[in-house]
Write a structure and sequence with these properties.
With 503 residues, this protein is of the alpha/beta class. The protein folds into two domains: 277 residues, Aldehyde Dehydrogenase, Chain A, domain 1, CATH 3.40.605; 184 residues, 3-Layer(aba) Sandwich (Aldehyde Dehydrogenase, Chain A, domain 2). Helix content is 40%, strand content 20%. Helix 1 packs antiparallel against helix 4. It is globular, with a radius of gyration of 24 Å. Bound molecules: nicotinamide-adenine-dinucleotide (NAD).
C-alpha cells in the first residue's frame, strides 16, 4: 500500500500540503513518500493567531461538551486505526504491531480525556474567617504549543491534544520534520471529527481549534517565542529542550519538557530470569532502540550475569530484523543514516573503553538508503562517558554489581532520569528501589521493563529528561490555570491573620 492509497483510505486530501521544501522519506527503504511545502515563521504566526481566536470561544464551552468532541475524535481514530497505523510504519519505520499500538494509545487518551472532562475538580478549603468560603477553580489556559519527535509521531500529540481540548485549550502542533505525513493525517482526521461534531452541535467548536505547522526548528521557534502561547509541551532531545526552555523562560511561559532518557534496569540475584530475558529484549530492541524509554543500561548481579548474558545474546541474535510491514519482524529500521552513524560511533567508543561488543552491525535488506542493524549488547568494565550518554539506537550496555547499594548508585549516576526497573523477588530491594532513596526517575517499575507505559499514569522524568509530566493522573493541571476564590457571605469584613485596619 503506497502513501496515496493510505491517504485515500483515510479520506484525506494531501494535495493542499504538497510543495518542494521538505521531503518525507520512509526509513523502510529510503524512498521518497512525498514532497511538501513548509510554513514560514509568518505563516506559523497566522496559525497561532487563528488558534488564539478559537481559544476566546472554546474556553466558554462547558467542559463535558468539549469532551464530546474528543469522544467523536476517538471514534474517528477507531475507524481509521489500521490505515493510520500503517502510515506510522511507513514513515517512522515502526513494526506493524507498534504502529497500531501508537494509534491505540491515541484512542486510550481520548477515552481518558472524555472522562476527565467531567472531573476537572477544584478543592474547597476551610477559611479561617467566619462567614467565608474558599475554593479553587480551574480555567482554560490558552493556546498549547506541541513540539514532537519522530519516534512517537502521533501518540505524543494526542497525549497533549486530547487533554488540552477538554481543558479548553486550542493546540498548535509542530511535528518532527522527519514525520510530517502522519501529522497531516492526524490533523485531517481531527477536522473530520470537528465536522461530525458540528452536525450535532452547530457553531460550538471553532474552526481554528487545531493547527498544524510543518517545518524545522525555525517554525518551532515561532511557537516558543509567541506571547499568545502560554504553554509549550516539547518532546525531543535534551539539546532541543534546553533551547526551548531558554526561550520560554525569557517570557516566563510554561513548559512541559519530555526529553532524552538513559534508562537502567537492576537484575538482582532473586530475579526470575525467564521474565528478565523477555522484558530486556522488548525494552532494548523494540522500536529499534528508538524509544525515550528504551532500556540502555543493564546492571546485573555478579552471581547471575554469566547465566543471563548468553541467553540475552541468543535472543538479540535471533530477533528478526527487517521490513517493518512484515508480520514476523521485531526490529525495523533506524530512522536515518545519522542514527546509524551515531550508533557506530558509540560502539567504537565503547570498544576503546574496554567494552566487549556483540552485534551492532548493519543488516543488508537490499535498500542502500535504509539503515537496519543487529541490536548490540556491550559488556562494559565500568559506566564510562559513552554509557552516560543517550545513543538513540539499540545498544544495551551491561554492567556488573556486587552490593545492592552499589547497583543503585550506578543506576542513578547518569544525567537523565526517565524510566527505570528492577527485577527482584526480594521485597526489601523492590521497596528500596521505589523509595525516596531509590531510583531517581519519573517511572520506577518492579518486574516490568522500562518501556511501554500505559496512559493512565503521569508520564515523564527528572534531571535532564526535563521534569515534565503528561498523559494520565493529574497531568491535566498543566493545561489549566488555577484561581483561588474567597467568598464573604457575612456582614463583617474580617482580615486574615487577625490584622486590624479600621477606617
Ligand atoms: P529532536 O530534538 O531532534 O527534535 C524534536 C523536535 O524538536 C522536532 O520537531 C524539531 O524540529 C524540534 N526542534 C528542534 N530544535 C528546536 C528549537 N530550538 N526550537 C523549537 N523546536 C525545535 O529529537 P528527535 O531526534 O526527533 O527525537 C529523539 C529524542 O526525543 C530522543 O532524545 C528521545 O529520548 C526524545 N524523546 C523523549 C520522549 C519523552 O517523553 N521523554 C519521547 C520521545 C522522544
Amino acid at each position: 500500500m503506497v502513501v496515496n492509497d493510505i491517504f485515500a483510505a483515510l479520506n484525506v486530501d494531501l494535495s493542499a500540503w504538497k510543495g518542494d521544501a521538505l521531503t518525507a522519506r520512509s526509513p523502510r527503504d529510503g524512498a521518497t513518500l512525498a514532497t511538501l511545502a513548509v510554513d514560514s515563521a509568518a505563516g506559523a504566526e497566522r496559525k497561532i493567531d487563528a488558534a488564539h481566536a478559537a481559544f476566546l470561544k472554546w474556553r466558554t464551552v462547558p467542559a463535558p461538551l468539549r469532551g464530546e468532541l474528543v469522544r467523536v475524535f476517538g471514534n474517528v481514530l477507531r475507524e481509521n486505526k489500521d490505515a493510520l497505523g500503517r502510515l506510522v510504519t511507513l514513515e517512522a519505520g515502526k513494526i506493524r504491531s507498534e504502529g497500531l499500538g501508537e494509534v491505540q494509545e491515541m484512542i486510550d487518551i481520548c477515552d481518558f480525556a472524555v472522562g476527565l472532562s467531567r472531573q476537572l475538580y477544584g478543592l474547597t478549603i476551610a477559611s479561617e474567617r467566619p462567614g467565608h468560603r474558599m475554593m479553587e477553580t480551574w480555567h482554560p489556559l490558552g493556546v498549547c504549543g506541541v513540539i514532537s519527535a519522530f519516534n512517537f509521531p502521533v501518540a505524543v500529540w494526542a497525549w497533549n491534544a486530547a487533554l488540552a481540548f477538554v481543558c479548553g485549550d486550542p493546540v498548535v502542533w509542530k511535528p518532527s520534520e522527519k514525520t510530517p505525513l502522519t501529522a497531516i493525517a492526524c490533523q485531517a482526521l481531527f477536522e473530520q471529527a470537528l465536522r461530525r461534531f458540528d452536525e450535532a452541535h452547530p457553531g460550538v467548536a471553532p474552526a481554528g481549534l487545531s493547527q498544524l505547522i510543518i517545518g524545522g526548528r525555525d517554525v518551532g521557534e515561532a511557537l516558543t517565542r509567541s506571547h499568545k502561547v502560554p504553554l509549550v509541551s516539547a518532546t525531543g532531545s535534551v539539546r532541543m529542550g534546553i533551547e526551548v526552555a531558554q526561550t520560554l523562560s525569557k517570557r516566563l511561559a510554561r513548559s512541559i519538557l519530555e526529553l532524552g532518557g538513559n534508562n537502567g534496569m537492576i537484575v538482582a540475584p532473586s530475579a526470575d530470569l525467564d521474565l528478565v530475558v523477555r522484558a530486556v529484549t522488548f525494552a532494548s530492541v523494540g522500536t529499534a532502540g528508538q524509544r525515550c524509554t528504551t532500556l540502555r543500561r543493564l546492571i546485573v548481579h555478579r552471581s547471575v550475569v554469566d547465566q543471563l548474558l548468553p541467553r540475552l545474546e541468543k535472543a538479540f541474535a535471533s530477533v528478526k530484523v527487517g521490513d517493518p510491514l512484515e508480520g514476523d519482524t521485531l526490529v525495523g529500521p533506524l530512522i536515518d543514516r545519522g542514527s546509524f552513524d551515531a550508533m557506530q560511533t558509540a560502539l567504537a567508543e565503547a570498544r576503546k573503553d574496554g567494552g566487549q561488543v556483540t552485534g551492532g552491525e548493519r543488516v543488508d535488506v537490499g535498500h542502500d538508503g535504509a539503515y537496519y542493524v543487529r541490536p548490540a549488547i556491550v559488556r562494559m568494565p565500568a559506566q564510562t562517558a559513552v554509557v552516560e550518554r543517550e545513543t538513540f539506537a539499540p545498544i544495551l550496555y551491561v554492567l556488573v554489581y556486587d552490593e545492592f547499594e552499589q547497583a543503585l548508585a550506578v543506576h542513578n549516576a547518569v544525567p537523565q532520569g526517565l524510566s527505570s526497573a528492577i527485577f527482584t523477588n526480594d521485597m526489601r530491594e523492590a521497596e528500596q528501589f521505589m523509595s525516596a532513596a531509590g531510583s531517581d526517575c519519573g517511572i520506577v517499575n518492579v518486574n516490568i521493563g522500562t518501556s511501554g507505559a500505559e496512559i493512565g499514569g503521569a508520564f515523564g522524568g527528572e534531571k535532564e529528561t526535563g521534569g515534565g509530566r503528561e498523559s494520565g493522573s493529574d497531568s491535566w493541571k498543566n493545561y489549566m490555570r488555577r484561581a483561588t476564590n474567597t467568598i464573604n457571605y457575612s456582614r463583617e469584613l474580617p482580615l486574615a491573620q487577625g490584622v486590624k485596619f479600621d477606617v
